[in-house]
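User: Continuing from earlier, I have the next pair ready.

Assistant: Great, send them over.

User: Here they are, in order.

Assistant: Folding the first of the pair now:
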Amino acid sequence: MDDDWLWEALGLVAEVTEDATGGGLRGLVGLALRRNPRRAHLLVSRVLGKHLPVPPAVALEAGAALAARARAGSAAAQASLASGETVFVLGYCETATALGHAVADGMPGADYLHTTRRAVAGMRSELELAEAHSHAVHHWLLPADRRLLTDPRPLLLVDDELSTGNTAIGTIRALHALAPRPAYTVAALLDARPAPARAAFDRLADELGVPVDVVSLVSATVQVPADVAERASAIRARFAAPSPENEADAARGRVSWVRPPWPAELPDGGRHGWTPAHGRLLDEVVDAAGASIAARLTAPAGRTLVLGTEELMYTPMRLAAALAGVTGGDVRYQSTTRSPVHPLDVPGYAIRTALEFPAPDDPSRVSQVYNVGPARHGGATDSSAAGRYDDIVVVVDGGVDAAADRGDGPALAGLVEALRTHAPVTVLTLPSFVPEGAR
């Protein structure tokens, strides 16, 4: 975690104003450089389970802690208690899909939906949102039941980080125009908005005539110098990026495929909505699915990475937690990502290695996974080394490719080949949930 050099080289100055974790800003995030002309640096969450591997319990506990903050200090929660209405929780794809889901778990009776960037045949987006600073700007809302968006319930909007808050403000305005709500709360692991951006939320509340609150685990201001892009470019020039492996020389682990028993009525995630009844059903099946995974591992008590795929984060996270309970091994969880981050194999830098491959649900674009270590050659078994694993379990949904039902779809080939040079791979395919009206 000794990343002082990078903060200094970029000229970033942070001041923590509130900390519910006790670990400060550096305990919550690391730092890396983006491959994005709009933004030079990336605050890399140490608890989210996206770019960095974490024990699944850590990610789930972060969601529970954020839910507790929302219950205690949000207008949406207080309006819910006053009206008897349950809260509607909305998460952002792709980074906060699991976080939003975990927060919804901590809000009694809450329904959950996350935005999506995946088009679904037979479904029309109820609302299109824009995230101007993102590498993938547009995302949509595809609820199976439109009443999630039109019922006038308090809204809890969940994201991993607030840098300007503009996306959240745009979302609240769009949803309020569709169906006014009595209160809005934005919940984030990190609130790093500058003072003018914080004032914009007060103006929004005045404009709409309803409370608009923000809660977070850590609140901080981060001063960014005007020349941060030039500073980032100089750092890239100073340190060479890690060289790609010679795949011809890399040992290839075995690949196995598993489709665990899965109720047809249980969605793979919150793309089309998730109710408390879905949560209870997942609780009933997740341990058996974890046992199915454990039976395929080469070293069940060893070090295992469970890898979600882009928006498919929450269910893999729950499977990882179940697997840890079944095996007693060292199980870590993270996800593939669209987010282009520049890797540097330098101490204190958050993203040490990167693997690229065609995205399983759209092979025309690239996806990544970070910090999966190099293959262990010559029979080495140092599985305690960061990023090195005895087994990798990658969780996909059947919608990534029609051939995924056979377990060998071409859309998965790039991801599987990238991973199997690092450890034996088990591909677990969940049925892709499609609402009745879209079939």
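And the other member of the pair:
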Amino acid sequence: MAEPISLASGLLTLATFAFQSSTTLYTTIKSFQSHPKRVRDLEEELDALSGVLRSLTDTVVATTEVDLSALDLPLLRCGNACKEFEQELLKCSSRSNGSRTSFRDWAKLRYMGDDIDGFRQLLAGYKSTINIALTDASLRKSSVTAECLEIYRDLIKNATDDLEAHLQSIDEKLETIFARNVTDSDAAEVRHIQEERLSTQKCLQICAQLSEHINQIQLRPIEPEALPERFTSEGIQQCRISLDHTTAKLERHMQDLVDRLMAKSKTAMTQDEIADLTRLQEEWKTARQCIDICSKADYHLRENISIIDNHASGDETVQFLVSTSQKTIHGKNRGYGFRIRQVGGHLSDDSLQQLSRDISRISQQDARIESPTMQGDTPSDPNDGVEKGSNSGFYERYGRGMTLTSKPDPDTTMNSKSPEDGPSSSQKCAGGGSRSL
């Protein structure tokens, strides 16, 4: 007999369990002949969920360097939800006294009080959370475009908004159950617990708002001698750590309050009602865990990834695309002009400063080498000395140019020409160094 699936089963086992449950549910739904629009939408969602779960399983098998243990609870809940929905579907079809080819009662199907669309949105929340966790892990080892990062940022925001709406819906359902099943003797205590729960929820919202405000604070890179900014940065970091600890305490207190409310409610409930309440409790925990995964992914995107697009034009341009910390860089250097120098990668502060000094010294040396060549050859007016007509506007089209010295043609040394008979012995050439003709 197979051992029951639990949080202690391990990430790979849980991922496999969720994948098998989703594919089994997909096959069961396909076995019914009637597929209205909402059922087809559910099939598409299940197919997409299976694809994400397959990617997760492949990632877990391929590497042990990525910690995805935060997905344990969402995976367990995802697998159980698919199995339980399949059981409800089979039960509903058996009550309709019809075969799978004639089943039409999709509208009557309910799971945790929601219809098929509600269940599809539930699966979409699992899928988005798993996808976000996988993307968060891959961003630390791969490079993507700024456009892809923007799509990822939108995915995090949309998933967070949907999960918060889902969590609010569960809270409302729990409120209804608590109000309906509490005895008169427990009413005063339940009211007190409810008030404390609302207060805890408000405190969690304040913590979330403060965390968002901290994320929006932008300080310029801190130099070793910039003590005020260093003190400020350290203070902000300590504030963030303290805020995380406070949030964790409030989350544990909220969980304790929900557990106490459930214990009070179960005394007057049937076994089926207790089963429904247990599902809601598990889904409440899962939704909060999914929101936490999205929050951490958003924090990592803000704090550990720099999106830079350097664009410069002109001669002697120097571009740096460098991280002196552990931040991942996603960006590119783009430059147009004569003798552009570009630097990219991860360097220490000392290496970056030394490299900057080296580039400056090389540029000065190049300027000294070119100075004798250019001295006296470049007119004060860029177009002075340039033949009018087809050669006018040389400077605007090609730059300052350099003077090239011509050697006499051996075949014409005996027949030298006067300046009026042909081109001058020196001509303008766009770019490049001196060379003999």
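Worth noting for the second one:
Residues 219-224, 373-380, 382-390, 412-437 have pLDDT under 50 and may be disordered. Residues 126 and 334 are 40 Å apart (CA to CA).
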